Every structure is written in C-alpha cells, then in structure tokens.
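Worked Example 4.2. Read the sequence first, then its structure tokens.
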Amino acid sequence: MLAKIFEIPPSEVCAIGGGTEGAASVYFEENYLEGHDYPEELSVFPYRPSRIHSDVDLATAIARILGAGVLGSFPAGEPQAHIPFLWILVQPDGQRFKVLQRPECEPAIIIDRNSLTPWKPTSDAPPGRHMKRLFFRCDGGHYFQGACCPFDGWSMAGVAKAAEYFDTLGQSGEPQELEAMKALRLSDDLIQRMLIIEFGDENAIFEALAPERCLYQGKELLWSEADDTLS
C-alpha cells in the first residue's frame, strides 16, 4: 500500500527494525491497539520528496485505498494543531472532519461522534481579513464572543463548540452564516441567542457588549424591562 501511495517500488518500503535501515525511501511502524475505534496505528517516515506532504495527505490516500475512515494529526502551522485530543477524520470519499478524542477513555482512542465538524486547511481560505464575529446573548442581556460572558460568567451547552466552529468557517473561506451553524445540530435556544456582526475595520471589533436600552417594536425599553423575547 505505501509503495503505491508514494509511487516507489515495494523494495524501497521498509518496516523499522526490518534490517535494511539506510537502504529504503520510506520507513514505517505499525501498532495494533485493542479496544480502539481505529485499531491500527501507522507511523510513516519518508526520506524522499513525494506528493504526500502531511499526515492528512497520507490519511486521505490510505482511506481511499482501504475504503474506511482514517484519523490523522493536524498539519504543522494549522491554528488548532496544538489542541490536545483533536484529530482530523478523513473518509474514503475525501471528506475531512475535525473530531475530538474522548480523553476519559485513554489510552484507548475512542472518538466523540457528536464533535464531528467539517474541516478545510487554512491554506484553502481566500486572502483578506475576516471581519465577521459571532456573539451570544446571555440571560443578563449581554452579548459576548467566546465560551462565556465576561460580565457575569453565563454560558450554556454548545457555546464553546459553536464559537470554535464559526472561527473555523472564516479560516477555511466558508460562509459565516447562521444557516451554516445549524450543521452542528445546536439547540433552538442557542441558535436564537446568536448574533453575527460584520465590522468595517478590525480596530472597531469589540469582545462583548452590555446594552442599557433598545428600541423594540417602536418602543424604547431598558434591558431590565425586556421580556423573554429579548433576554
């Protein structure tokens, strides 16, 4: 399989410890992992230029040949490459997803299927700055970016995941729209709390907002007077 992927003769592929170190173009090491969602671990060490430039390229080629999903680590330089327990799942049809490993199951590699979100490398994103930001409305009527409200600490299930996915959409060049957020299967309550703002200048971007009053259906309201529709 590796000879086919790297387009070299089979004699130039060698298992580490196979006794021909120094004579091969590609070395590999296999480990079989009992009780894992993905029971075979493959480490590959190419020593010649090829069209395979990252773990994702290799996972894509293997998934296509085996007809099965393959996990790969994030390429160096990707913004989320440092996040522990985060993998890229490549399907046989070439689709790629970010997926989280369940840390409580270590050392077994068991993935959280609910964490699947589409992934594209940042190199695929069009040039230019992304000026859209996703805000959430907390129970106190504040609007904030990120995982929780900085004014009162409010948060709810799905907020951090939605915030991360929105940033990923911008990095990959996908439309940053509420319709795209529905792919995460978030609760209706959370969707109704979302607000997307597109700023005209990056120096104008704020992280949170605590409005004092608003005009709603022609009536000026203090936030303290707003009903459940707005707060």
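Now turn to a second chain, presented in exactly the same format:
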Amino acid sequence: MPRIRTGTPETTTWWRCCQETCEHREVNNEAWGTTCPDCSHEKCEDCEENITPSASSTQQNIRRRHRCETTKYARHARQPNTANYARPSNTGWWICCKDRREVNPKLWGDECPDDQHQKCSECRTLS
C-alpha cells in the first residue's frame, strides 16, 4: 500500500527570534508561544513574523523520521490500521528541552528516545 503524505504544515504563525545567542531560531508559535525555547527571549518588534521554515528544519524532520523507523522501537512509527497514517492526538506529549523532539509519554515515558534526557522542568508539556 503506498504511503499517503500530507503537505507542508501551516507555518504562518511561526516567527524567527532576533537574538544571536540562539542563532535566530525559528519558533513554532503553537508549540512555544512567544518565548524562544533556546534563549528564553520574549518575542519583540525585532523578531521576524510569518516566516517559512528553512530547508534545514525539513531535513532534520526527515533524518529524525528515518532514525525513528530504523530503531528497534520502529513499530510505533507504522500505523497499519490507520489508512492515512494520521498522527494521534498529541495531548499530554512533551517537548524535550535538549533536542526539541516531541515525545509521546505512552511510548517513552519521561525519557527522550533520541538523547535519553529525562523530562525536567525545562521540558514543555503540550496541551
């Protein structure tokens, strides 16, 4: 059965931090709001709004997906009972403060599968 791929996610609410310390990080407003997760800078007039993420963000997602599908825990990456491979609700998931991976606590608990970081007060829980 061929894979059904969705288009590029909506990025009109993303913004780019104006601070050098985080190398002008692209910030997903839905996940992080108005605070840059790398430097804790609050969004200001100098921050660029309504950006389109660079190809490097897309490449990171491709590498992460490949890594995810080639691990011994790859069964969670495939959802054979879901016709369009839709992602389950991310309510309760958390974002690792070290590598910004979204972690499903039902699969991984309080440990990030990429870097074995234990969930801490800096990690953000999605609602």
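Notes for the reader: The longest strand covers residues 15-16. The mean pLDDT is 76.
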